[in-house]
Structures are given as structure tokens and as C-alpha cells.
Amino acid sequence: MNKKTSGRPIGEPFFPVVHSLFESDKYRALPPLAVLILHLLMYRHDARKNNGTISLGCREAADWYQVSPATAWRAFQRLQGDGFITEIHKGHLVPVASRNIATTWRLNVRPFAPRGGSSRKGH
Question: pTM of the entire structure?
Fold first, then answer.
């Protein structure tokens, strides 16, 4: 396998953060946890595999960043209120099957936003 000088394989997946997002006032005003969760959603985005919907629940985000589920929920609410993400399907617990279904999200920021989405700078 060909490798770059950094030791990472060529063609390793990445997610871009475009300048217009990084420089936007709304992005800069986000609390640190909301930025981290937004980046985790960007990391999980793969239009070829999940058609733009990203599965991530509050408890999983809370475990990932070692915060309470309520704190993670507030970060999701902030991201949704500011227009960075949209809830596609509400997650829930399935006690009979002992299986949890995480909420699925859509990113509204370029370059992840679907065509015909928001055209505002940075969103």
C-alpha cells in the first residue's frame, strides 16, 4: 500500500471544514461541546453509505465526550436551533428487544447539506 510521509494511507477519508463555516458568527458562538458534536457528525457523514443521514444519540455523544446525557442533549438542541443540523428521525428505547434506536440527523452546513438546502454563508 502506498503511504504518504506521515504514514497514513493515501486516500484516507477526511471531512472538510470550509472557511465560510469556520468564520461564521454562529459557529464561533457555539459552546465547545456543540462544536465537538458537530465535528463528530461531520466525521460520521458518508453520503455513499448513509445517504446523508447520521445516527448519533445523546447517550452515545455523552459517553464519547464524558458528559451527562442532558448536557449532550442541550448541545444537540443548540445545533438544531442555530440551523446546523436537522433531526430526521427521533431515537427511542426499545425495552422489549433490549435495543436502542439512535436519533438520525442531517447536516445543514456546506459541503454536507443536500442540494436545495440553505444557501446562507456558512450554513
Answer: 0.74
